[in-house]
Specification:
By secondary structure, the protein is mainly α. The chain has helices at residues 6-14, 27-46, 48-52, 61-86, 92-100, 118-138, 144-172, 176-195, 207-212, 220-238, 263-273, 277-290, 292-308; strands spanning 248-250, 255-257. The protein starts with 5 loop residues before the first helix and ends with a helix. The chain binds 3-hydroxybutanoyl-coenzyme A. It comes from Nocardioides islandensis.
Length: 311
């Protein structure tokens, strides 16, 4: 497909058509999609680590089975998204190399530790809840393969969010120690979950272009507000308090007001200075290196069979 001039492209998008891999598109549209889809995929794969940390220590066989299914889902989401990125003419091995060398990012939220079992509940309820809020609009993204991948991903995220809520429900209605553990996890994961939505709109370099091209349907702050509005009533149902004394319903706005987010924390974590950045990347690189033999064997098998079938 050829590079399309942005003006013609915006007219084409006006018909609300989907852009497909073989369509002409502006090089910058392709570039920003590779950037976002690759980093989305990286986030899913790195996101397996915090929760995976608790698979061998889940409190029951039921919780262990659910957590294993969830972590497997995240792996699948990552592979799905790498496939969507590859429709844009990039090679997954190169994307993974860019992740390992720090040239591409992954979501800040996965650089926080999972200190107790309750963190698995807080991640499911808050992190997957935030992910759903961000990913449902992406089902209507202008790029076909990405929007279709999101339909499948969102169905599985709903299960992730519900199981997280149920873990916190069990703990918050358990012993005082369990209740305190649930509250501590929510205290630690609330603000970093709000940061998942990105910098404020007036400090979001990609938003204007992504919104003009139908990639981002709502701004970072709009989706953050939507997440707060959805989550506050759920926290009341759980009997847990969100660590922000400024949260209160604002009738005029029709939304919850909430406190000021410390975005320097987001920028520091994105720069590599979060609690677990080094650990997450070291684990990821080691797993990739340990898995090299599998990739080599699969490639040798494919080559042998290609010859056999006279390809
Ligand atoms: N963590 C890491 N980097 C972040 C970030 C975060 N929470 N928020 C923003 N950034 C980066 C952006 O990638 C961009 O850097 P880049 O130009 O080098 O890519 C820079 O900060 C400025 O941010 P912008 O708002 O200008 O960037 P975007 O328009 O791309 O918006 C986004 C950021 C909202 C994360 C958008 O990229 C997006 O919607 N991505 C798809 C969804 C996604 O990646 N979610 C991550 C979580 S996946 C997940 O939760 C898995 C679930 O199963 C648990």
């Amino acid at each position: 497909p050829a590079d399309l001039d942005p003006e013609t492209f915006v007219e084409l998008l006006a018909d609300e058509d989907r852009v497909e891999p073989r369509d002409d598109m502006p090089a910058a549209y392709r570039k920003t999609l590779v950037r976002q889809i690759a980093q989305h995929a990286h986030s899913e794969i790195i996101g397996m680590q915090p929760e995976g940390n608790w698979i061998s220590r889940a409190p029951s066989l039921k919780r262990k089975a659910i957590l294993m299914a969830k972590v497997q889902d995240e792996a699948g989401h990552g592979l799905y998204l790498y496939s969507a990125a590859e429709t844009l003419g990039v090679d997954r091995a190169d994307l993974i190399d860019q992740l390992h060398s720090g040239r591409q990012k992954y979501s800040s939220i996965f650089n926080y530790p999972t200190l107790t079992w309750a963190d698995v509940g807080a991640i499911g309820w808050l992190v997957d809840g935030a992910a759903i809020t961000n990913q449902v609009p992406l089902c209507r993204c202008s790029y076909g393969p990405y929007s279709r991948a999101m339909v499948r991903v969102c169905k599985e995220e709903s299960f992730h969010q519900r199981q997280g809520f149920e873990i916190l429900w069990t703990l918050s209605h358990g012993s005082p120690a369990q209740r305190a553990m649930a509250q501590d996890a929510v205290d630690r994961y609330w603000w970093p979950s709000l940061m998942m939505f990105g910098p404020p709109d007036d400090d979001s370099p990609n938003s204007a272009q992504s919104m003009a091209w139908g990639i981002k349907r709502f701004s970072n702050d709009d989706l953050r507000q939507r997440f707060v509005d959805m989550t506050v009533p759920q926290s009341e149902a759980l009997g847990l308090t969100l660590p922000d004394p400024e949260i209160r319903w604002n009738d005029e706005r029709g939304h919850y007001d909430f406190g000021t987010i410390d975005f320097t924390e987001l920028f520091e974590v994105v720069k590599g200075n979060g609690p677990c950045n080094a650990e997450r990347m070291a684990h990821k690189v080691k797993a990739h290196e340990d898995g090299a033999w599998v990739r080599e064997a699969a490639a040798a098998y494919a080559a042998k069979h290609a010859v056999a079938e006279g390809a």
